[in-house]
Amino acid sequence: MSWTIYLSGEIHTDWREQIARGVKAAGLPVAVTGPVTHHEASDDCGVAILGGEPNKFWHDHKGAQVNAIRTRTLIEKADVVVVRFGEKYKQWNAAFDAGYAAALGKPLIVMHQDEHAHALKEVDAAALAVTRTPEQVVDILHYVIKGELAGYTDQAAAAE
């Protein structure tokens, strides 16, 4: 079976690439999907395709609706959804994606640092795992896909 993992959240670090490299190095049958991460393209897609808007609200609204076509479709098709909350910006879209995935019953893995634990307590409560690093996400995927712990040595077998 091939697994599809949707990666949602902050776009200012290379966490997606780290996960993609990790699943490839682990030999996991995983296809990684996600939103458009080119910030300007994501913000301006609606007006670029459908025409300009003098009011910033409608400019953003058009972009959000066009992006939602991709986001909703890919989350619905995903086997697992990973949502990363970054350090610098409030990612309301990531919180929405986490809620959407939870409402669909998708297995949800959340990634953030300890200082966001209080603010994200409801999101964390909906997640099946809360992680801090891309490596932890890869280790979870390795375990659930292959049914084994990455790098785990059975001490009892090794002693024999």
Topology overview:
Blueprint: E1 3-9, H1 15-25, E2 30-33, H2 39-50, H3 56-77, E3 80-84, H4 92-103, E4 108-111, H5 121-126, E5 129-131, H6 134-146, H7 155-159
Parallel strand pairs: 1-2, 1-3, 3-4, 4-5
What would you note in describing this structure?
The chain is an alpha/beta fold and 160 residues long. A 5-stranded parallel beta sheet has the order 2-1-3-4-5, sandwiched between helices. It has helices at residues 15-25, 39-50, 56-77, 92-103, 121-126, 134-146, 155-159, and strands at 3-9, 30-33, 80-84, 108-111, 129-131. The model is unreliable at 155-160 (pLDDT under 50). 28% of the residues are buried. The protein has a single domain, classed as 3-Layer(aba) Sandwich (Rossmann fold). α1 packs parallel to α6 (134-146) and α2 (39-50) packs across α3.
Biggest beta sheet attributes: 5 strands, parallel
The CATH architecture designation is 3-Layer(aba) Sandwich
Coarse structural class: alpha/beta
The stretches of 5 or more residues where confidence is low (pLDDT under 50) are 155-160
Measured as a percent range, the helix fraction is 40-55%
Mean pLDDT: 93
Domain count: the total is 1
- Give the overall shape, derived from the CA principal axes: globular
Q: What is the string of SSEs from the N terminus onward?
A: EHEHHEHEHEHH
The CATH topology label is: Rossmann fold
C-alpha-based Rg, rounded: 18 Å
Q: According to CATH, what is the class?
A: Alpha Beta
Query: Strand percentage, roughly?
Result: 5-15%
Number of strands: 5
Question: Widest sheet: strand order?
Answer: 2-1-3-4-5
Q: What's the tally of helices?
A: 7
For the termini, the CA-CA separation is 34 Å
Kindly report the name of the CATH homologous superfamily.
Response regulator
